[in-house]
Design goal:
By secondary structure, the protein is mainly α. The protein has one domain: Globins (Globin-like), CATH 1.10.490. The protein is 74% helix and 0% strand. The chain is built from six helices and no strands. Bound molecules: protoporphyrin IX containing FE. Protoporphyrin IX containing FE binds next to helix 3, helix 4, helix 5 and helix 6.
Length: 155
């Protein structure tokens, strides 16, 4: 899926507004994620509010930053996203979790951007997240299927 030029501009502008408050945004994000889906909490090694969780939040924001920097050539980040997705299988992440993370991300942007969170900005971020999640889900599914096939061959 290709993002429209106008969406690329909206995402860049709004991410620039969020970046200076990245640690706060990451904290809000995890708070909302765990409120939406408490069952996701145990997948994370760290306690909310701990230094480890802050570091985890900054990794998430960094990865989003990489995607935002490559918005007009997302193909270039596909291999990194696929590897990320395979690591997520090992973290215990399931396909159904992706929608929850997307919802928590959009909610966080709404909090951070205030009046600047227009329907257009929301739609642009939803399109970006859906694109990233689709790449990750495809890679994660293949991986899961491969594991199942390998296991089936062994037994
Ligand atoms: C576009 C979507 C996502 C992005 C960009 C993203 C990004 C990241 C990054 C950069 C890391 C750091 C570790 C690494 O690089 O392997 C990470 C770890 C993690 N992510 Fe994600 N993630 C996404 C979706 C999800 C979803 C849907 C879940 C579901 C709950 C999730 C749960 C986790 C967990 C459990 C960890 C490991 C935390 C730990 O080590 O305690 N992520 N994620």
């Amino acid at each position: 899926m290709q993002l429209q030029a106008e969406q690329v501009a909206l995402i860049r502008r709004s991410f620039a507004q969020i970046e200076p408050i990245a640690p706060l945004a990451a904290g809000l994000f995890y708070g909302q994620l765990f409120a939406l889906a408490p069952e996701i909490r145990p997948l994370f090694r760290y306690e909310p509010g701990s230094p480890g969780m802050a570091q985890q939040g900054s990794k998430l924001m960094q990865m989003l930053g990489v995607a935002v920097a490559h918005l007009d050539r997302l193909d270039e980040v596909t291999p990194a996203l696929e590897a990320l997705a395979r690591r997520h299988v090992a973290y215990g992440v399931e396909p159904a979790h992706y929608d929850l993370v997307g919802a928590a991300l959009l909610w966080t942007l709404a909090q951070g951007l205030g009046d600047d969170y227009t329907p257009q900005v929301a739609a642009a971020w939803a399109a970006l997240y859906d694109t990233l999640a689709a790449v990750m889900l495809r890679a994660a599914h293949v991986h899961t299927d491969q594991l199942a096939a390998e296991r089936a061959m062994r037994f």
